[in-house]
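explain this.
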Amino acid sequence: MTVGLHNALLIHNPRAGSGGRRRSLEDARRILAAGGIETELADTGAPGHATELAQNAGASGREMVIVCGGDGTLNEVVNGLAASPNGHRVPLALLPGGTANVLAKELGLPWEIPRAAEKLLQGNVREIAVGLATPLQQPEKRRYFVSVAGAGPDGRIVYSLDLGLKARVGILAYWWEGVRQVVRYSFPRFRVVTPEQQMEGTLLLVGRTKHYGGPFRITTGADLLEDRFEIGVLTSQSALRYLSYLPSLYFGKLRGAEGVSFWKTDRVVCEPLGEEPVHAQVDGEKLARLPVEFRIVPKGLKLLMPRNGKPSAA
């Protein structure tokens, strides 16, 4: 069993993912209880509620926080823990319950919630770095992230997403909006500056994980146990070129494609080069317009990982 963790707050977004999840969640709670982890269930009621619940858990002496929801709910919980004085000391565990579940894929967790709970009972707590994205003109909007942040067309997709469509069809709403934006987007260039090098691009991806947006694997050199991002910069301004990248995105083979560069860093600043706004996102959630700084925060979060303690490469 997971040693020393007996008292957990289970934060659940009842609106994320598909319906009929409550029974699976109760099965998971029984599995956890049989393994010595008692859970108190807390449903989220509005945007920002998961952050508040996570902050309170850190302040009230909870031994663990478990989140069951989508990537947005997970991001709220991460921000509640990482930003609070004691929150980063409280281990975070994950039960996949949304549409993309990027971190769950990275950790190799089963899609079925009860099976994922069984994995948690044999997990290892590891201290990991998190990303911190700070809009330089609105620093109060800074956000922590654990998967992938970005700027350019993917930020525009997040800002333009039809939330009603997302509620009906899940991750397919992102794919539809992605195709729509690639066709309509003007691909304004912006400057990408890191300690290692700088260049101009039209899309930046800042990866803590290999997985991105569901089935895609882009920053395939990213490692949650390393105190660096892997970033990818795309330079093309052609919609056709971006569409041609789709098969490579799906199979994780974008590395080496024309107009694509990857390298590792612990800090990156994106600066606009023109008047047209360029939007940034973190973990699939809205952030702000450029300029934005992304930097690594070492030991920013304790994460309960599957038994092998190593993120999945699949």
Summary: The chain has a mean pLDDT of 89.
